[in-house]
Amino acid sequence: MIIAVLGGAGYIGSHAVDQLIKKGYEVVVIDNLLTGHKEAVHEKARFYEGDIRDKVFMQSVFSKEKIEGVVHFSASSLVGESVEQPLKYFNNNVYGTQITLEVMKEFDVKYIVFSSTAATYGEPEDIPILETAKTLPKSPYGESKLMMEKMLYWCDVAYGIKSVALRYFNVAGAQLEAKIGEDHTPESHLVPIILQTALGQRKEITVFGDDYDTPDGTCIRDYVHVVDLCDAHILALEYLKAHNQSNVFNLGSSEGFSVKEMIDVARQVTEKEIPEKIGERRAGDPAVLVASSEKAQKVLGWQPQHTNVKTIMETAWKWHSTHPKGYDSK
Ligand code: UFG
């Protein structure tokens, strides 16, 4: 089966490509390399550099390749930036998905696995969060992903394009061999920032608020290993083929860790001091985000293997310590 991975040069996309290839899929990577890295593109994937918003480019790829399914990671994904530049998010994320769906319809591609987010829920009423919880995004980023989910829904109704939307919680860690890993510029995610501090690339880590209604006052998140997360994408493709039915799933580990706990785990793993200071709250941060991933486990048969945060941190550290400048390290 030939799968097009949109955003296959990015952090999560490159891990998904790696696992698809290990499972025997033929993979076509489409990426504009604005945030992705050419070095992250798997050597066995056929790579097309271009933008999913460019319909002529997308048509040329889909006419050359016999694509049977799409796994869609191509999106801008910074919550804070989206509040300042909402139109960037509606253009890149929503319009990019529109072109993707138009081309899928034209070339009769029936399956899409979509990278959605816990940011579609906003401030949750109940923890753990179920897929049936209200979706009231607090940022244009979350809103754009919810709009993309709705586009998928209506394209199923009208054209029979079947989708699985996977709502990610906090993705972290790296491929166990550490040949690929997380490399964003600028970096805003907690785990890489902690590890850059361990490497001495940052003086300290600023904890964004310690006055939340949580046991140690810092925000609690649900960290899921990138390899486990990508396994769920393969199961989602298999689900689509077997059931020809659209669905939505949360992907988390169902356990929450505070910012302070994560820094402590990193101290154990790296054996570095990792100085921290307490700063202001970051706008838009909910106090607690923890998923119920029961539905993915029951319906997709998802069995995450690397649920221990120490393992997540160890694999991330293996990547960061061997690639201190990310893909520019060589
Ligand atoms: N944090 C700090 N200091 C930092 C960076 C982060 O204290 O320097 C805190 C944040 O305030 C937050 C936690 O660490 O409480 C995790 O922050 P991240 O930026 O790593 O992740 P987010 O929870 O903000 O967002 C992530 C993804 C989003 C996704 C969201 C859904 O980046 O794309 O999870 O849960 F929408």
Describe what you observe in this structure.
The protein is an alpha/beta fold. The protein is 39% helix and 18% strand. It folds into two domains: 2-172 and 224-251, NAD(P)-binding Rossmann-like Domain (Rossmann fold); 190-221 and 254-328, UDP-galactose 4-epimerase, domain 1. The chain has helices at residues 11-22, 55-64, 79-84, 86-106, 140-159, 190-198, 226-243, 259-270, 294-300, 309-322, and strands at residues 2-6, 26-31, 46-49, 69-72, 111-117, 162-168, 170-172, 205-208, 220-221, 223-225, 247-251, 257-258, 276-279, 288-289. β1 (2-6), α1 and β2 form a beta-alpha-beta unit. The chain is globular, with a radius of gyration of 19 Å. The protein binds uridine-5'-diphosphate-4-deoxy-4-fluoro-alpha-D-galactose. Uridine-5'-diphosphate-4-deoxy-4-fluoro-alpha-D-galactose binds next to α6 and β8.
